[in-house]
Amino acid sequence: MSTTADDRDASHVLTLEEIGKLAKEGGRPPLRGSLISPRAPATNRRTNLRYNHRMMSGESYNPGEIEPKWREYWISNRLHEAKDDDPRPKYYCLDMFPYPSGSGLHVGHWRSYVLPDCWSRYKWLQGFNVLHPMGWDAFGSPAENDAIQKGIQPKVGTERNIENFKRQLYEIGAMYDWSREVTTTDPAYYKWTQWIFVKMFKAGLAYKTFMPVNWCPSCKTGIANEDVVNGRCERCGAEVTKKELNQWMLRITKYADRLLNGLEKLDWPEKVKTMQTNWIGRSEGAEVNFTAIAANGNEHPLKIFTTRPDTLFGATYMVMAPEHPLVKELTSPQQAADVDAYIEKVKSERDIDRAAKTEKTGVFTGAYAINPVNNEKIPIWIADYVLMAYGTGAIMAVPAHDERDYEFAKIFGLEIREVISSEQGGEAQARQGEASIDANQAYIGEGTMINSGQFTGTPSEQGRKAICA
Ligand SMILES: [Zn+2]
Q1: Could you give the 3-state DSSP secondary structure of residue 334?
Q2: Which residues contact 173 (CB under 8 A, 6 or more apart)?
Q3: Per-residue model confidence as pLDDT tens digits over 361-400
């Protein structure tokens, strides 16, 4: 039986045992050449083909035997470790680190890890020096609460959970460089987060202030928006309240422009980009004061935020977030039942999903608002596509020039009035007064203002400033 690639008989087909033996003896691993680089020696490529042929010709596949063998082989040969001085081109593939909970790695974890794993292998086969690390986002109140419940140190529980996750990832056969494992609860790691924090503090980017947080009175912790389900704590089911807490904040708003510019370059789905944009929260625009008239005749100032004041004449209705403090006050007795039912339904939705939702829902409040630019009376609706956390929690809806408003207006039969024409000055003015009924989508670009009183004929970018003056 031949043990090196050089004297191997071309007609001989290697058995799996022989491949394993070759590996143990430290001879050139038979599969390695063809796995790593398309420029592998011809003999290795041929061997690989024969090996595949043998597999397909009916020899039984015994995962209990084969999988541990190769896992061991990968580990002992450090095949998945990225070396700094490796001459191959570098490739970095980073997954979001899991939170190592007591329940272990579940299929939802692997669902998001399997693709980067395939991708890393693919890049490795293409001849890259792939760095594909794994680590543990291990700090957090769940670990603390779990430790309190079990009467153990959080450190002990966390280490045990990590050990279990690691075993599971190993058994799956994932390709990770375990020499670069990161654990956020390891002092050798978090001394660097502390170092960064001090740098930020000295640069005036970290500051302390009172801010409301979602508070679970039972877990006695603040919880993220994503962990509030139906107004209740996802972990323990207790009703979540708001609490003003003195807490550390980072001025990421100082970097909003850079974050948004970077986002543009990413080849991500639009839905995810929208979520990120909302999260970054940077918008340039104006606050405009409308007057809301409640069903009982009482008047209330209603402030809205818009990035397009040049479309003010195209506002045909208003939308408030269902949580807006004025909703109760404005709603008419006839609409009260529908409004209450809708508010109840929206309570169970997370902001992050609401912003990305495609189907539009909403309810008329029975109240109206006066548009300050033309004194027009327009209906006030509530809808979950308007978030309390964004702007003022109320918007003017301009369906002709905003995609979400357009979808909403189509569903509820609200007026769509064109006030920005893509045509230039004279041509656009000639179209003044023409209905946009034939338009089957919102026009969100710049253009010339039409149907806009004294601003008609003004380029939209110029009108944006003029109308606020
Ligand atoms: Zn709780």
Answers
A1: coil
A2: 67, 70, 71
A3: 999 999 999 999 999 999 999 999 898 777 788 999 999 9
Taking the domains of the chain in order of start, what are their residue ranges? 1-77, 80-185, 213-280, 286-466
CA of 230 to the centre of ligand 1 (A): 13
Half-sphere exposure of 159 (CA within 13 A, CB side): 6
Q: ∠56-62-68 over CA atoms, to 5°?
A: 120
CA 221 / ligand 1 centre spacing (Å): 7
pLDDT higher than 70, residue 43: no
Q: Do residues 231 and 263 lie in contact, with contact meaning Cβ atoms separated by under 8 Å?
A: no
Instruction: State which fold the 80-185 domain adopts.
Output: Rossmann fold (3.40.50)
Quote the pLDDT of residue 453.
92
Count of beta carbons in the 10 Å neighbourhood of residue 24: 12
The pTM assigned to this predicted structure is: 0.50
Q: Which CATH superfamily is domain 286-466 in?
A: Valyl/Leucyl/Isoleucyl-tRNA synthetase, editing domain (3.90.740.10)
227 CA → ligand 1 middle, Å: 9
DSSP secondary structure letters along 384-416: TTS-TTSTTSEEEE-TTS-HHHHHHHHHHT---
Per-residue pLDDT band at 199 (split at 50, 70, 90): very high
